[in-house]
Specification:
Elements: E1 7-8, E2 10-12, E3 15-17, E4 22-28, E5 31-41, H1 44-63, H2 66-82, H3 84-95, H4 99-119, E6 136-143, E7 146-150, H5 158-169, E8 173-177, H6 183-195, E9 203-205, H7 210-219, E10 225-229, H8 232-244, E11 248-252, E12 257-261, H9 267-278, E13 290-296, H10 297-313, H11 331-346, E14 350-353, E15 372-375, H12 382-385, E16 392-398, H13 401-409, E17 413-414, E18 416-420, H14 424-433, E19 438-441, E20 457-458, H15 472-475, E21 477-484
Parallel strand pairs: 1-5, 7-8, 7-10, 8-9, 10-11, 12-13, 12-18, 13-16, 15-16, 18-19
Antiparallel strand pairs: 2-3, 4-5, 6-21, 14-15, 17-20
Helix pairs in contact: 1-7, 2-4, 2-6, 3-4, 4-5, 9-10
Bound molecules: nicotinamide-adenine-dinucleotide.
Nicotinamide-adenine-dinucleotide binds near residues 177 and 229.
């Protein structure tokens, strides 16, 4: 194995701890003979210690002005920026997304830190005028206390940032548990805050298993508020456990995102949106990934010819080699895709492209799955209903707009949706009728802007509070109505 020169610890009360019983070793999914990093593995006790450190730090942290708290975020952004290229490479090597996608993620990380530093300048309440001239009325926002942040591996630094940044500027202390597939890049975010001089205990980092560290963070009385992103399977249990324990909780979960291609669509654009949204960059491993294309029968053949030509030209390989698509992030993710491909074939679909694990010298040490397209897909099939989270596109033919909307909405998820059209009436009706948290016209289902609220409906999100944007701070704060004579 390639030498591993990167061993990070748990980060509790401002100190790195590598003296744990166990480690998590992450390998490069494009070449598993390469160890990317080793991070100490925390357990129940470490989680408890981190929660206690956060509880002890939160009062002093919340006493700082939001301006002062924001300054730490700006400094952390400078640290990330100073190591930009190194961290881009680390994201690609640990998670497998292409260099371009990793670059986008790192830029978003820097931007988020700077954005929430700015939000801190006026993250307070508002001041609706009182009915009485003698009274001053305003609302104040106060932190909840200690936040647990539990994150997935597919945006291993940007998602933690968009949760941790608003939690911190709002005056909360944080205990952060990253996904076990990507603890190294997650530890670099924590290191940036450490280098920025964040006071001890304000941010704590406990990598470890979901059933141990995650469970402790979900149930421990020292946690006041939980922000989780991951699968519906886990998120729904976190949501229930948090509700039972009386904690505020926000869960962002899966998606089964449709792209509608109507009879007026620019078909080259539709192909671009399909490939960018569902295949290239992250190999379909985005919660907002395009996984269903609902194409009007009248243009289906033409669209499909162009799509298959494009898919055929996609280069798959080492994500740092300028390819279109890298590997799946882990063996289990690859196996899961191959299982879904088998299920789809068994359901009577037609495999129009891909469908196999890639083999050969370039691929044998990695987890590469071919970009895959199924046609003759019925909306009720499992391949059209369940989140695959891989480079697998289901093309479903629809006869008209009403059917397209019904199929788009006929799944348990409701995260993102897009329509490719030149008809304003279709665009307007789709915006109104689709049951998702994000809707786009002539854009990919993936990709969101940080000042916009993010979240979904149905099984995609708890929907109580959105992430990102200024309103993210609301999730981490109580609002108090103040009357002064
Ligand atoms: P996952 O649900 O397996 O894990 C997410 C996190 O939860 C990890 O840190 C994991 O260790 C932790 N966890 C596992 N069991 C736990 C438990 N019992 N208690 C507490 N925490 C526990 O998801 P994943 O495989 O890391 O990520 C992929 C999923 O994330 C996909 O479903 C994807 O759609 C979703 N996702 C959603 C969004 C969004 O914003 N909606 C964004 C990215 C990813």
């Amino acid at each position: 194995m390639t030498a591993n020169n990167n061993h990070r610890g748990l980060y509790i009360d401002g100190t790195w701890h590598t003296d744990t019983n166990d480690d998590i070793e992450s390998t490069n999914p494009a070449d598993t003979t390469e160890v990317v990093g080793t991070v100490s593995k925390g357990d129940h006790d470490a989680a408890v210690e981190a929660i206690e450190a956060a509880n002890a730090a939160e009062a002093e942290w919340s006493d700082l002005s939001a301006h002062d708290r924001g300054a730490y975020l700006r400094d952390a952004a400078d640290v990330v920026e100073s190591r930009f290229d190194e961290l881009v490479t680390l994201v690609s090597r640990e998670m497998g997304k292409t260099e371009g996608a990793a670059r986008g993620e790192l830029q978003r990380t820097v931007d988020l830190l700077n954005y929430y530093a700015e939000v801190a300048r006026d993250a307070g309440g508002h001041a609706p005028p009182s009915a009485s001239d003698d009274t001053v009325t305003y609302t104040a926002r106060e932190p909840w206390g200690t936040a647990a942040i539990i994150t997935p591996w597919n945006y291993p630094i940007a998602i933690p940032t968009w949760k941790i940044a608003p939690a911190l500027v709002a005056g909360n202390a944080v205990v952060f548990k990253p996904a076990s597939q990507t603890p190294t890049i997650a530890s670099e975010l924590v290191a940036a805050f450490d280098e920025a001089g964040l006071p001890d205990g304000v941010l704590n980092f406990v990598p470890g298993s979901g059933s141990e560290v995650g469970d402790e963070l979900t149930t421990n009385d020292g946690i006041d508020v939980i922000s989780f992103t991951g699968s519906y399977e886990v998120g729904s249990t976190v949501e229930q456990a948090a509700a039972d324990a009386g904690k505020r909780v926000q869960c962002e979960m899966g998606g089964k995102n449709p792209l509608i291609v109507d009879e007026t669509a620019d078909l080259d654009l539709a192909v671009d949106l399909t490939v960018q949204g569902g295949l290239s960059g992250l190999s379909g491993q985005a919660c907002t990934a395009t996984s269903r294309v609902l194409v009007f029968e009248s243009v289906a053949d033409d669209y499909l010819d162009r799509l298959l030509d494009r898919v055929d030209s996609l280069e798959v390989g080492d994500p740092l080699d300028g390819v279109d698509m890298g590997p799946k992030s882990s063996a289990s993710e690859m196996e899961s895709d191959l299982e879904y491909i088998e299920i789809a074939e068994g359901e009577g679909t037609t495999l129009a492209a891909g469908g196999e694990r890639l083999t050969g010298d370039e691929y044998d040490d990695g987890y590469f799955v071919e970009p895959t397209v199924f046609t003759d897909v019925d909306p009720e099939m499992r391949i059209a209903q369940e989140e695959v989270f891989g480079p697998v596109i289901s093309v479903i033919e629809v006869s008209d707009f009403e059917e397209a909307v019904a199929v788009a909405n006929g799944v348990e998820y409701g995260l993102s949706a897009s329509i490719c059209t030149n008809r304003l009436d279709h665009a307007k009706e789709f915006i109104g009728d689709v049951e998702t948290g994000v809707v786009k016209v002539n854009q990919t289902t993936t990709g969101v802007e940080m000042q916009m609220p993010f979240g979904g409906r149905k099984h995609s999100s708890t929907e109580t509070f959105k992430e990102q944007g200024r309103q993210a701070v609301e999730f981490y704060t109580h609002e108090k109505a103040v009357y002064v004579m």
